[in-house]
Amino acid sequence: MLPMTVLETPTSEKPTLREVRSNHRSPAGVHLVARDYPRGMRIDPHLHREAQLIYAARGTMQVTTPGGRWLVPPDRAVWVPAGLEHAIDLLADIEMRTLYFDLAWLKREQRYDGLTREFVVRVSPLLNQAILALFDARNTAERTELLVRLVMLELHQAEDSTTFVPLPHEPRCRRAAMIVLDDPTGLHDIETLAREVGTSARTLSRLFSTQTQLSFKSWCQRARIAAAIQRLSIDANVSVKQLATQLGYASVPAFSAAFRHVTGRTPTEFAGKDSS
Questions:
Q1: Pick from 70, 81, 141, 236: CA 20 to 30 A from residue 115's CA?
Q2: Domain span at residue 213?
Q3: Would the pTM count as exceeding 0.85?
Q4: How many whole angstroms separate alpha carbon 42 and alpha carbon 89?
Q5: What are the residue boundaries of the HTH araC/xylS-type domain, all occurrences included (predicted)?
Q6: pLDDT in tens, 130-167
């Protein structure tokens, strides 16, 4: 059975870049890079002078920033502002399509409003096709410019924070969060957790609320659902019933209700599975 953790440990042997399909700068202020990466590879913390939209046309990845962890299945993309340190873990074989946006172009085109922080967007069929079409070698400058503008319009309408697990900065709260993330399927009691990190349950509860904008219970549920999304994204054989049991839910309906509360969809709708 695959480990049920939000962060999957990379393989011990260093994976290699499989293929570089495209790497060119368009006349519309966007640098386009298409790469295929193998499952288990980790792109260590780094930052760019350009803002970027990271999209996996196939496969699931996890993007970690100082503010938290974003799980990015194929129907999501993540916006990373310029200068923001981030790491990427590949949880499955990935077909990555990245758009690097020149800051001067963004400001000149008055497209930078709301793009100074990281966020995940739900990739609609229209946004999916617009991103993929940008990598067509037959594109003219006019077609590329129109596609880039379409991508930017879609970005402002598709923000979705359901796959985000915010990480607290306060040291005790951060340690507690990492204990939960190491085992999101466990039934973590706040009193026990507080003793482990050297504080009181009341203080830890307050810290989670102020540092993550979620109650401890809601934060743990977000971590569990993120683990479920990861598993559904990379394991075609796992059933919703198996997941519900492994995550400690009393029944499939209870698990489905929690999943829908976080993501807006049931696990069956997310994965196109039958619930048995």
A1: 141
A2: 167-271
A3: no
A4: 5
A5: 174-273
A6: 999 999 888 888 898 899 989 988 887 766 676 788 89
